[in-house]
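Fold this: Beta-ketoacyl-ACP reductase
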Amino acid sequence: MEQPVKGQVAIVTGAGQGIGRAIALRLSLDGMSLVLADLQGDAVARVAAEIHAGGGEAIALPLNILHAEDRQRMIETALSTFHRFDALVNNAGVQRIALPLDVNEEHWDLVMNVNAKATYFCCQLALKHMIEQRSGRIVNIASIAGKMASTTYHPIYNASKAAVLATTKTLALYAARYGVRVNAVCPGMIETPMQDAVDREVARITGQAPAEVRAERNARIPLGYMGDGADAAAIVSFLVGPDSRYMTGQALNADGGVLTY
């Protein structure tokens, strides 16, 4: 039987802004102590300060998720500081806009390395510890773009998030016998700085205004509005917590009804 998360320890990558920040704040509210990893040291330090101001525990850890030694340092920091490690949320990701025939190898390598490769190897490190202790939860932040070609303006992002979903399913099957659960969250249109940047880049390619791009995408959301980071964070909270104890290998959408599978 899984226990309530109060007093447990989670690592959140890409925790400096947007969905990552919302996840960090929500898991702290749930009673977890946090290791917050992000390439932007100042940003993640501000999130840790928010958590401290609310009475929670968090360590800001500036690092580059592409570096194996930095990924190892994440795990070691959780264990050396809090003496336990219960959950990993792989949220760090990048987005690049280009039409399919304009993608070059640098574009491919960056997006696939951050979104797919780093996620896989963070999972691998976490599983080595979680399997030994016969407990743990991993939540990978994918995207509805991994289930559908949500737009042709970010083809490699689509491919990378499909890879995250395949990783989630494969590792869930592998880890289940050890009492470790691996699930994913698939956000759709979420109000974040990354989404703002995407709208600007799509506008540059199409000749539209960013507001027009945003309006067109919003029109495809059945609930009629964009979500915010807290909407995705609530699903992460559920998947990390004991109420989802009988779920593994799943990919839950936070998209206002764009996808129904």
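The chain has eight helices and seven strands. The chain has one domain: 9-189+229-254.
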